[in-house]
Amino acid sequence: MIQADKLSRLYGDKYAVRDLSFHVRRGEVMGLLGPNGAGKSTTMKMLTCFLPPSSGSVVLAGLPLHDDLEVRRRVGYLPEHAPSYIDLNVEAHLSFVGRMHGIPTATLSDRIREMSTLCGLEGRLHQRIDELSKGYRQRVGLASSMLHDPECLILDEPTTGLDPNQMVEIRQLIRRLGEKKTVLLSSHVLSEVDAVCDRMMIIDDGVLGAMGTRDELIGLTSAGLVLHVCMRGNATAVVARIREQYKDCTVDMSDSTDNGLSELVFRHADMNIPLAESVFSAVVAEAGVILDMHMQETSLEDVFHHLTGRPL
User: Fold this and answer.
1) Residue 255 pLDDT > 80, yes or no?
2) Is this prediction's pTM over 0.85?
3) In this structure, what is the dihedral angle of CA atoms 300, 304, 307, 308, given to the nearest 10 degrees?
4) What is the distance, to the nearest Å, from the Cα of residue 249 to the centroid of all Cα atoms in its chain?
């Protein structure tokens, strides 16, 4: 549905986006992640024909990007700060947007009601937009982007300004839309991307760092198997048993505390070895007691920091 090949955008002599290649399939929700200034908004503006690329190509819904009028008909775009005519009420604003998209008058009212129900605007249709909260203005923007039933939705921070309950509702809506449409969304909320997206890509300084499913991205940056153990007993003997069994296993061991507890961290590159079972057996063999044992999991935050060198 979206195929970008070596997409680049220059501002003067500085690249905002450089040689960006990716594809998004029909019926897929793709997350676009990156720190501030990474090129996310510039990428979205190029895909929606607001900015021409300096070089590279994009095919969207089978159409080249230079066929901008037809591409705009196939795309729904929600900018981070959704523009609206604040002196109009919600229904009048949606009606204007619908007429600009060429929606027939005979079906426009039904379409407005359908989108207001989807976005939770039923009781706000006759309220002026300048009287709405930021969250409801965001809902108006989302309804506007979907009014003409586009094949592809490009959403820049779609849950900005929403309360936690509204965020859940919009996430569920995006998931339903993603079953039939192509959705590309940008967000600073990693939990949102994790909950909504089938795949995600991370860009930094306008360059693609990685792209894949959550598990694939974590696999790129995982440090292997990391097991944390808190035990009482002969920790030195336990460590000796594990090192004998797994030659490549490294262990960090804190000094025993006053209450006789030891903190151990076992690391091994092979994610598939039964390290937890082996440690448990070693502690039992040394007549020790385990008070806590847990695997350290790599999070999306870890992946992001690894690929960009800074937190989100």
Assistant:
1) no
2) no
3) 180
4) 34
